[in-house]
Every structure is written in C-alpha cells, then in structure tokens.
Amino acid sequence: MCSPFTSLSSPTKAPSLEVVDLWFRYPRSSEWVLRGVSLRLYPGEVALIVGASGSGKTTLLRSITSVGRWIYGGELRGRVLLGGIPLEDLPLDGVRRSIQVVNQNPYTHFIEHLVGRDLLSAAVHLYGKELGRRVFARITTALKLEGLLGRRFFELSGGQLRRVAVAKALLWDPKVLVLDEPLMWLDDEGVADVVEAVRVARSLGKAVLIFEHRFARLLHLADSVYLLRGGILHSVEQDFVKKVQRSLRLSRHPQGGSGGRTTGRPLLLAEDLWFRYDKQGDWILRSLSLEVVEGVATVVYGTNGSGKSTLLKILSGYLKPSRGRLELRSRAVYVPQNVYLFFTEESVAKEFEVACRSRNLGRLCVERGVSYLRALGVDVDLEESPFNLSWGQAVRLAVAVATAASEGPAVLLLDEPFTGLTYLERLQLAESLVKLGNTYVITTSNSENLALVPSARVFKLVEGSLE
Predict the structure, then answer these.
(1) At what angle do helices 363-375 and 423-436 cross, to 10 degrees?
(2) I want to staple 181 with a disulfide (CB 3.0 to 4.6 A). Which of 96, 104, 156, 214 is the partner?
(3) What does the domain layout of the chain look like in residue ranges?
C-alpha cells in the first residue's frame, strides 16, 4: 500500500484548477457578479481568497463547481478547467470526482450518526469493499481520526467536525479541495484542527482553495493570496502578506490588558460562584469571582465549551448560581452569541419602541437609541427588519437598543460579538463600542480578538475558574 502522504492520483503538470477570464451573472440580472476572474492552482498548492460580504466569493465557488449554471441558471463566460478538462465537458460525477467542497456547515456532509460508519460506507460506495476499506484506513490515518471513529457527530468539536468533513471529501480523491469559511465559529483549538487538515490535503497532492474572511491564521499555509473585490480578483503581493503576518503576531499578545484590580465604581460583583445544570452533572463554573468596574471593559477568553456563555447568563440573571454571591449594582443586559435571538420585533424602529416602553421611557429614549445607532455607523431604514441586517449591523443594533433603554450605568454582556465578522468589521465594531463608553463584559474564543480591546481587563476561563 502506498504512503498515506502520496496522492491517489497520477502526477501531472497540468493545473488542477484553471480559471480564465471568468464572467458570471444570475438570471434576470444585467449586472456581472464576476468580472474577468483568472486563477491557476497546481497540485499541492494552497490559495487563499479573501473579500468582504458581497464581493463575489460565493458566486466564484458556484461557478467553478458548475452549481452556478446547473442550479441557478446563470450565464458564464470564460473558461474553467479541472485537471485540464473544460468544466462543460465533465459529467456531474466527473465534476464531483475532480473538485470537492467542504461547506460552512460541516453537518451537511454526513448521513450516518457514527463517524467511522459514515466514512467507511462512503469509501465502500466509491471503490467497493476491499479497496474502499484501504482508502478509508489511509485517509483516516493521515488525518489522525482513529480516536474519533467510534464517536457520534454531535459529540465532536467544531474543529474535529471540519477535519472529518475534509476526510470525507478526500475519499473522492479530488484534484481540488475547496474549503468555504472553514474557521467559522471555531475557537483556537478548532483552528489548529483545520490547519492540520489543510497540511494533510496538501501533502496528498491536492490543490486547496480556501475562501475565508478570518484569514490571518491561514496565511502561513498559502502559496498565493487573492482579494476579491467588486467581482474582480486581485493578487496580493507576498511582501504585503509578510507585513500582515508580522503585525498579527504582535497584536495577538496585547500588552494593555490584565486581570488585575482597577479603580472605579463596581457595577457587578461575583464572589465564589459555582454552577452546574443538574445536581448529578459536572461543575461548569468553580469558585469563580469577578468584579466589573464602571467604564472598564472586561474580556473573558476561553475555548468553546469552557463556560463563557453560562457565565454571562448568570451575570445577567437568566441563570441562578448553584452557590456563591452575585451583586448587581446596575442593569445588566445579555446579548447572545446568535445576536438575532436578541430581537423580537418586525422592524428596527419597533425594537427601540418596545425596549423603551418596557422601561417606562418615552419618545426621547427612542430618539436617543436611533442617534446611537447612527453614531455606530448603521444607516439602515428604520422600517427594515432586524433579521435582514448583516451580522455586524445586528450586533451594533443590539448595543444601541440596550444602551438607549438603560437609565444610568449599565453593563452590556456581549457573547462572542466579533464572531462571523471580517477583520475590518471587527475593528469597526470595537471602535463603535468605545464611542458609546459603556461598561462591557465580552467573551471570545479567539485570541486574535484580544488586540481589539487593548485597554480591557483580560481573564482566561479554565476549568470553570478565571485566571
């Protein structure tokens, strides 16, 4: 049997993926979403494509997999070649065997409930029983999945799920592996899982194309970096990439934050908090103490599942601690990780009106909230549904609503507010929070975000306690 780090395909000098002067537009639209995109990717190379929402990343993905034409009925001009074969000359099965996509939601890739059973059944379906078992063993060994094969998918972390999804894609032995926003919702440990999966795919001779807005942790893997803007693909010079990498290495360890005591009026005091969801369960929080001081931001950093959301729910009063003391000296407002759960009304205006009315505050409260929203850079129609806003706009709307409906000091408890945002959007949100001058407790599972709040007190949540 060949080495697990040798490609299943025969070596070739042809590009695994070649895109030549690609234009694409959707039916009944006169606007071209892609405009003259060209790209060449060889076996064992990794290309990273970044771009803001609406830049055309999803459309490019649809175009190179034929989905744009077959499913959406769009018009495509130019050429897409997979392994030197024009896309239009490949049958559906040929496309699937040439290019595999790992979606943002990895759960969509699986049928069986056990990891090993799902991967083995897929391999046997593709190659027959004997060869399928060999391919299954080779891929799972290469990606170090032996310890996960007997587990259910819902038991896996986000990074483990994506590693298994990459394994299932590699079973097809594609020339091109595409990862669509693979770092979405992942903590630092999950990011490491994805990085390792990319390394394995490259070692197997696969051309890897990554679409990602949270690109900093992937730059060192990329042979080429592109910026997609307005439907046009721009190559990013390596000198610029190296400068970005250097600045990010420095920013990942901010010097300003610490967990020490600070002066100011305490608005929230937690002493020796313990919490578990049932009497027989494990402790989520253990002897946790925290003081939140007016005008000072507090950041709680920890991996997914460490108890960050549980802590914020206790601080807001949604959950009662099993033991310990919690003293609230001001209003505390919890904004959940899925920020759209914060909203209840059909329009932005209604959100302000209902929030202000619930606090017995009048029209001035609504006007104040709208002024906060505009100051935060959200210039949407007030009759727009909050559920139609972008993620960044929705977070800023939640902050404006909570601030407007608070008379006097308030503590805003923001659960992973930077998740799902581009770096520019994260910076804009961080600057917006400073503008309002509120007191914040912010959770994050991504160490990159610590640089966005350099003056904050930073704590790490480990085994239920703050360090």
Answers:
(1) 140
(2) 104
(3) 17-251, 266-466
pLDDT over 50 (residue 422): yes
Longest dimension (CA), the chain: 75
Residue carrying the six token digits 């999803």: 58
Write the pLDDT tens digit of every residue in 352-394: 999 999 999 989 999 999 999 998 889 889 999 999 888 888 9
Write out pLDDT tens, residues 86-127.
999 999 899 999 999 999 888 889 999 999 999 999 999 999
CA nearest to 446, candidates 185, 157, 161, 181? 185
Question: What CATH class has 17-251?
Answer: alpha beta
